[in-house]
Write a structure and sequence with these properties.
By secondary structure, the chain is of the alpha+beta class. The chain has one helix and six strands, in the order ββββββα. The relative contact order is 0.16.
Length: 104
């Protein structure tokens, strides 16, 4: 999980702006940003993303701001961890089999 906070400062007429965002360029759908001043993202798979914020002023495109984001894999999602866990499981299974065969 991560959060991105931002602000749009216009003291005279803040209602003239409409904000939308999308993460990743593989989608054409823009999600509206209403009165919130932070975006929270959960469950993104490891990889590189591009967060884009589109700013409309009086309904017309004013600008698009972009922020590159890289989501790293957690320790348990890495291949070396999975290999090590499988190796430990195999060693424990072999050890348990040896102990059981000794007591028979």
């Amino acid at each position: 999980m991560f959060q991105v906070s931002f602000s749009l400062i216009d003291f005279e007429n803040p209602s003239q702006y409409s904000l939308y965002y999308r993460i990743g360029t593989d989608t054409d759908s823009w999600l509206p940003i209403r009165d919130q001043r932070q975006l929270t993202f959960n469950g993104l798979k490891p990889g590189k993303y591009n967060l884009e914020v589109r700013i409309l002023r009086y309904g017309k495109l004013d600008q698009v701001k972009s922020l590159p984001i890289e989501v790293s894999a957690s320790l348990t999602e890495t291949t070396p961890f999975k290999i090590l866990a499988a190796l430990i499981f195999c060693l424990l299974s072999i050890s348990l089999s040896s102990i059981i065969s000794i007591f028979k």
